[in-house]
Amino acid sequence: MNTLNAIENDKIIAIVRSVPCSAILETAYALLAGGINMMEVTFNQSSEEGVYETANSLRLLNESLSSEILLGAGTVLTAEQVKVAKNCGARYIISPNVDVDVIQKTKELGMVSIPGAFTPTEVVAAYNAGADIVKLFPAGLLGTAYIKAVLGPLSHIPVSAVGGIDETNISDFFKAGVCCVGIGSNLVNSQIILTGNFEKITETSLNLVHALKK
Hints:
CATH class: Alpha Beta
Strand content: 15-25%
Strand order of the largest sheet: 5-4-3-2-1-9-8-7-6
Shape: globular
CATH topology: TIM Barrel
Distance between the termini: 25 Å
Structural class: alpha/beta
């Protein structure tokens, strides 16, 4: 199964943000135990050191769990970061915005492109630039009614939803027409990591997977 088909098949991408490299493997094991195998490790854009640590986390996950997880990079803002992510084992690139250079570099390097968009104009622009899936963000503010309305004339464009998704509403987003979702702080957040409560990540993962099957 290729990367794009795997994303559409497995449906839930865990957004791993602000997790130190020292805790990245334990986070991955907790997600896997709950049935989630897709991880988007987001670039820390605050400093060069942050970008370096993100690359280290991607590299460690790829070296340790490449056969078990589908690894991606998130908050990718430059073509150079696309190359870094590719070299560290990422198979898909997710951004909060539509950047043609990022999309084209992603496709040039043989990865799946998932840029973020807010309006129908941005959705079409991203798709025309080569995006495989367009991320509607922030989905929690947009709501499922908005997604349904956008997909009315644009049903040929695969979209994902990110923001505000949890086990109580995940099925609603799929009923609205998305092909996958990204879940961040409702699944993996800094408080859980700081307290070492990785069992909570597994529990939430199980609940999400179960809710998706309803």
